[in-house]
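Hi F.,

I've been meaning to write this up properly since the lab meeting, where we talked about keeping a consistent format for the predictions we share between groups. The idea is simple: the sequence comes first, exactly as it goes in, then the structure tokens exactly as they come out, then a line or two of notes. No screenshots and no reformatting. I'm using this chain as the first example so we have something concrete to point to.
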Amino acid sequence: MKGVELYSWKDKEGDWMFVLLDGTNRVKTEKEVKQAKNKVKDLDALKRAIATLAVGEQVFWMHPIAGFNFPPEATRKDVAKAAKDARVDLHVLQ
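Output, unedited:
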């Protein structure tokens, strides 16, 4: 297992979207990420998804492809706290 990848972006309505995907050795496409069935539309749903991960899981929040961006600092801090509370190891790669 290569950990979990976290992606974030704003949808056409301006809402933040998030998705957690299994890590791989390849770069995913924008379409693949944005069409994932487990994407969530708000921070609370992301926090619940993080809470279901195994203790010690490695989560890499990165955007190696175009079409993604990080939410405001306050939201990033909320995600980091949710990961800490779930005892998940969050790595933010900007």
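Notes:
Residues 4-93 form one domain.
The radius of gyration is 12 Å.

If this format works for you, I'll send the rest the same way.

G.
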